[in-house]
Structures are given as C-alpha cells and as structure tokens.
Amino acid sequence: MMSRRSIRTLRSRLSIRLPLSILLASAYSIGLLAIGAIASIGYVISTRALISEVSVRQGTASVESVATTIRHLLLADSEATLRAVAEKADSVIRDLGWLEGDGAAPDLDSIETYIAAVEISPTGYIYVLDGEGTVVLHPFPDLVGANVADDEVFRQIDAVQTGFVRYPWANPGEVEERAKVAYSVYVPETDLFLVASDYVQGIPSRLAPGRLEGLASGLLSDTIKSIVIRSERGDEAYTTVGSPSSIAPVAASDQIRGPFLVTATIEDLALEIDAVVDPAVYDELMRRVARSSTIGVVAAFVVIAVLSTLVAKAIAGPIERLNRLTMQRVARGVGGGRLVTSPSLAALILTQLRLVARIDSEHSLRRTAEDQLSISETAFMRSGEGICVTDSEGTIKRVNPAFERVTGYTSDEVIGKNPRVLKSTRHTSDFYSEMWSSITAKGRWTGEIWNKRKSGTEYPELLNITAVYDSANEIDSYVAVFHDLTEVHDMRARLRRATTHDTLTGLPNREYLMVATDQALLRATRTQGHVAILVLSIDGFEDIVDGFGHDAADRLLKWAASRIEQQLRGDDIAAVLGGELFGVLLSNVEDSEQTPGIARRITLAVREPYAIAGTVLRPSVSVGIATHPVSGSEPAALLDNATAALHNARRGGNDGFAIHDPKMNSTAHAKLAIQSRIGRAIEEREIRPVFQPILNLQSNQVIGAEALARWSRNGEIVPPSEFLPYIEQTSAMTRLDTWILEASLEALRSSENLPADFMMSFNAAPVDLANRAFVDRVRIVIEASDCDPENVRMEVTEAESIRDFRLARETIRQIREMGISVYLDDFGEGYSSIRYLREFGIDGVKLDRRYVMDVATSDRARSIVSGFVQLVQGLGLTAIVEGVETEEQLDYLRSIGADCAQGYVVGRPQPIEEINALFEDGASSASRHDAEPTHAT
C-alpha cells in the first residue's frame, strides 16, 4: 500500500505531464503548418524557375538557328563580293596590258595604283603571286618579293588555281594569325595568281548600310521579337531590328535580365546575336502559377490544420486514458498490481512521437515527389517544342501535344511504333549511323534533320536526342525534343532569293546572270554551240524620272521587264544589271544571224505604248550584243563587250543595236590607260591653270582673264587637245574643272595688284552640267576662297553633248543664284541656236574664233561678226569675240561696238604673275605683240 503522500506526489507528476503532452502535440501541429507554408513557397519558386528555363530553351534553339542562318548568308555574300572584285581586277589589269602575255609593255604604275586603291573592307585587299609563290604586287610593300611557296596559303591557291580558298594569315606587325577567305584568278598566259582576300572577321564591316538589318529582320518570328547584332568586342551594335515596345531599350541588351534575353555567338565573324524572346507566353504562365499558388497555399493550410487537430487528439487521447487508469489504480490501492512509473510513460510518449514523425516524413517526401511529377507533366504537356519518349529499343511510349501539332500524328497513332514513321528521304543511311554512334558514345545528339509529316510533307527541324540511364547505368529510354525550322528555312530561301534577284522586277540580278552564263558556256564548249549576251538600255530614262517621278519610273521598269521576258525562249534568262539596264542570256543560239532577230523582237515589244501619269509613251531601247566565242569565252568578258557595244548603239541613235567588234576593245583599252594617267595627273596637281587676258574694247583695259588648263609632264607642256577629249565625258572632267576653279581663285586672292572688279573666268564642260553634285562643289570652292562670287564667271561650252537640257538649265540657274555670271562659250562651233540664248538664262556670249579670222578681207565674215554683236546686245547680253590676233581685227570690233576681245593680240595664256605685272604701274592696256599669232588658246 502506498502512503497518501506518495499518491499525492504521483498524482501531481501525472497532472503536470498531461499538459506537456498536449503542448508537444500542439508544437508538432504548428511545425506541420510551417512545413506546408515553406513547401507552397518552394512550389511557386520552382515552378517559376522551370518556366523561365523552358522559355530560355525555346529562345536558345531559335536564336542559334538565326545565328547559323546569318553566318551562312554573310559568308556567301563575302565569297560573291571577293569573286566580283577579283574578276573585275582581272579585267582592269588586262586592259592595262599586263596579263595578256602578248609582249606589250604593261602600265605598271597604273596597275600598282589600282591594286592599292581597291577597297574591299578596312582589312581586305588584292595581291598578285607568280607561279613560284613569289609576291609580285601587294599593298604591304614589305611583302613584295617574299616567297610564300611553303605556306599553306600558296598550296591552297596553287591547288584550286581559280576559286575560293580559306587560310590563316598574319600581316607584317601582327602576332596572331586570323582566318581569311580569298578568291583566286589564275592567268595561265603569265603564270600569275590574282587574289582578292579579306579576314573573315572583317566581313561585317564592309556590308552596305542596312544589309545586316535586312538579314536580321527577315528572321523575326513569333518566338523572337527583337534582334541585336553586335561585335564580340562590345564596342557598338551593328544593327537592331524588331519592336522594343515590350522590352526597352533593345539596343542596350546587356541591361535586360530574366528569361527574355538569349545570346548566340558567331565566333569566326566576331558577332554576337542578342535576341529578345517574346515574354507573352512566360507572363501568361506566371499569371496561372500565381492563381494556382494562392489556391494551393490556402488549401494546404486547411488540410494541415485539420491534420494537426487529428494528430493532437490521437496523441493526447491515449495519454489521457492512461492517466485516468493509473489514477484509478492509485486511488484504489490495488495490491500486487504493477504501477506505471514516470520513466515508462516518457518512453511510451517518445515512441509514439517518433512513429508519428516517421509517418509525416514519408508523407512529405511523397508529396514533394508528386509535386515534382506534376511540374514535369505540366512542362511536358505545355512545351512549345515537340517531345517524344521511347524505350531503350526505340518504341514510342509518349508524345506531347506539340509533337502532334507539328507531325500531324495523334498519340494513339504513334505510341507503340518506331520513330522511323517520321523518316524523310533527305538523308542517307550513313547520316543515321553517325547520329546513333554519337548517342551511344556521348549519350546525346543535336543537329538539323529533315522529317516527314503525316501528310507526306517533309520539313526541317532542330533535334536533340538524350539517353536516360537507370540505377545500373543502363539506357532506360530516349527523350527527343525538336523545334520545327520550316519558317526559318522559308526565311533563308527568301533571303537567298533576295541576294540573287532584283526586288523591284523579280528578275535575276547580275551575279545570277554571270553564274548562268558560266554554265551556258560550259555546255556550249561541249556541244560546239553559241552563247550570246544582250545588254538593253531604256533611252532617256533619266528624263522619265525627272518628269514623272521615281514611282512611275519603277512601274515602267517592271512593265519593261515583263515585256522582255515574254519574248524569251525556254532556256533564255533576263536579268537586271542596275538602273535602266537589262541583260539577256541566249544560251543556245544556232548561229550568229539568229541573235539580231531576237534583239529586234525585244526592242519592238518594249516600244509598245505605255500609259504613265496620263501620258502615252513609246519607250525606246538600245541594245548591245556580244557572242561567244568571237567576243570572249568568260561571262565577265561577254558582259563587258556587250556593254561596249551598247555604247556604240547609243551613239548610233535610239532603237538601234550594235554587235561587238573586237576592235572596240583595243580602242577602249588605250583610252582607259590614258584616262588613268590623266586622273593621276589631276590628283598630283600636274595640271594647273594659266590665264589669258580679256580686253574691254571701249576702255582698252584688261578687265579679267580666262583660266585654261595646262599639263606639265616631265618638264614638257601637253596641249589640251591631247588630253581633254579623253576625259570630257567622264567624272574626271568635273574634278579637273573644280580644281582649276580652286587654283584660279587662290591666284586671284593672292595677287595684290589686280583691281577689285577683276573678273576670273573658268570653264565648265557639258558633263559638269549633268552632274548634280557640281553645284555643291562650286559652292564649297567659292566659300573656301573668300572671293566675291560677283568676280567669278563660268563659261559653258556650246556642244551637242548638252542633251539633258532641263538638268543643264537647272544647274545654270543655281550657279547664277550664287552671284556667278554665266557665259556661253564657242558660240557657232556646234549646233548654234537662239534656244541656248533664250532658255539658258546666260549673261554673255563668246563668238568662236573662226568667224573673226577673215574680217579684214571678207565682207561675209564682217557681216557674220556684226550680226552676232547686234543679236547678242539686242538680247541685253555681253558680246565677246575670241581668237583676235591683229590690231586690224581689234579696230574692226571697236567700230561695230563689240564689248570685249580675247586672243593673242591681247595676251597669250600666261602665269598669274604676268597678269599681275600689268597692273604694277596702274596700266592694263594690251600692247604685247611679241609672239607669232596662232589659232590655239
């Protein structure tokens, strides 16, 4: 029997342990609630991370495909550029007499100047090697004479002879080699290699403005919304395309974070492709996650609260019953019964708590696994990429909805089958063998592959196959994830067409025509057939542009292109060469008599009436013809010779055609060489002005001078008649005229004795009046000289070559607006017309020297000169007579009231210092008769 004191002590201890057990149960419940909250938050975070990963993976596949496309296109564009440069250089250097191998002395100065002047890009250039590997010409003088026969570059060039090569190279002063691409042209007559080369990393820098943007803009898709193409050095972006409305600024792509920015690198071109992936899908998924997360957290708290209550009751119930039973036994003082002591009770409670904790832990692990499976299932079902899961034998176990959408097969149709149902006809068995060898060795394979849809249509895809291993490291299954590349390939096709076809007319461009001509020549060589190229020009096209605008002119070009195509035979090709020029390849001509007939048929077709802006036109056409083998055996030679024939056709009148004659080439080559030497003389300032005085007949004072060009070559003076005719229709003439003006104004400004109203005249050729930039050049020279435009006079030669009357009149109007007076020179030499005097808006007229020669002895000559003076002065203009050589002629001109005279009797062409000397003593009358009179000024 226990004492009452012992019973009270035990009862007290048991009363204390019961609340403790309940407290422990409550603490456990709170712990479950905390675990539930943490699990819910973890669910949200992991789901967001998974969606971000899926978004990035989709973007990465698309951006890598974009980068691959841009790389292929840029390299193809580069190869085409280098080939064009090399072939053009071959043509020019042949014209300069070096590569023909006929023993003619080459113009080496012009050749070296041309080689040094060719600009491919900041890092590209042309060089020449001989057959032994010695550098003959090179922009880097240190390399000339070096032998590279043992270098990889020469071995490749020697092997390919004419074609593309790739090699590493370091120029003098460079430490590391960089990849280069080059096109070599072999000249067997001289055993020389002409090579156009550039560093691969220099390719983007030579692109025309907008070229990269054009490439990138065609690659935007539903996935990629914006693209930034920049150098790998990060100095600046080459181009940015796409709308930055959702993420701005797109150009500062390095500031964008999250799943929206994906970067791919084109290593050999030193470019980075930064693409902004469309965030719309990501945002929608995030909104769904937010809604489901809120519901999940609330539900989790409710379930955990109920579970905690049940657990607390389950723990507290047995303890309470045990406590009551013990107290009853103590109260009754049952003899011989075993009392449950405090250590036994604690052990029981501890055992029960461990059991509950183990059960809860297993439950939590199961819930975590279920959550992960749910997330994976969501990603599998909602992925935009097609996913196919097979067993280790290749039997399909599962496919997702994207797989069904891309292939056209439902899951029921493919589960249990082998993926061979998707196999296309595009790949050989070796391709598939290599693919599975990679999977076996590495556990994965990634690449482009063509598969077949249920409809039978074959399509490209970017495929990734990954092997999944079990716990024994054996392959359990395979997971294939693919992205449909149909849109990307369509874009590539459109871009390829854009590089080979004219966007306005849809006709092939020059590069396409050259390739087709090359193939036609190979066939003609085998079959002993004939090939011809026609070059067609719409005459007066510039007048149509000026009169009706560019849009109307573009419509005319499209119409003309369709008319030309309608006249071609099955194998013929029409192409656009630029502007109003078209080229036609006749690839199978029976004989030389057939070609002119086709040319006439095309001419008549284009001449059909065409309505433009309410006006009916009959466009006229000139055609140049070159045939193989008479006019050449290379595409470039045929095209150049057809173009030369076109120039002859134009000179012969509208709607004419001309057939190339080999004699045209020798004349053109000689003219090109002379033009090259003259151009160099202009740049090196070998051509400078001399000044011929102009006399006022009434005051007998020199009032001005005309600046005349003289070429001092090797100490000898080259007469103008020996060099001006070669450049009078070229841009070199404009450069010369503006240089003579600049030098003349400098002489005027620096001459201290000349009066303030001294007039300086300079000449403008007809080609200047047709050059829209001529007015700007004159304005720049006038402003830089600090001379008064009122002291400057421009003399315009009256010549047949002023054909664009409208443009010439506009040029003269703008010149006069500067304050410069305009005189018509050599009146009566060409097609003299009152129209020139009335419509050109001129200030004075100079009569050609031939009419004053016989005034001393011929009544007819005196009548012509007198009539000229009366006509000009009657129009309110100044009358000047040039070529005056005797005092008798001067006296006659004074008697009829002529305004001014110019000629040897007044003064020869002379340096500005001699003109200045006339005014040293304040006198400026003409009294020099120390030279024999001549007819050349």
Question: What features would you describe in this structure?
Answer:
With 937 residues, the protein is of the alpha+beta class. It contains 25 helices and 30 strands. Helix 13 runs antiparallel to helix 14 and helix 16 (662-683) packs parallel to helix 18 (731-750). It is elongated, with a radius of gyration of 46 Å. Mean pLDDT is 76; it is low at 232-236, 244-257, 333-345 and 926-937.
Question: Any descriptors?
Answer:
937 residues, alpha+beta, 8-stranded mixed beta barrel, 5-stranded antiparallel sheet, 21% strand
How many β-strand stretches?
30
Would you identify the regions where 5 or more consecutive residues have pLDDT less than 50?
232-236, 244-257, 333-345, 926-937
State the end-to-end CA separation.
Answer: 156 Å
The helix-and-strand class reads: alpha+beta
Beta-strand residue fraction: 15-25%
Q: How does the overall form come out from the CA principal axes?
A: elongated
Order of the strands making up the biggest sheet: 22-23-25-26-27-28-29-30
Kindly state the mean pLDDT as a whole number? 76
Main beta-sheet annotation: 8 strands, mixed, barrel
Percent of residues in helices comes to 40-55%
Our count of helices gives 25
- Radius of gyration of CA atoms, rounded to a whole number: 46 Å
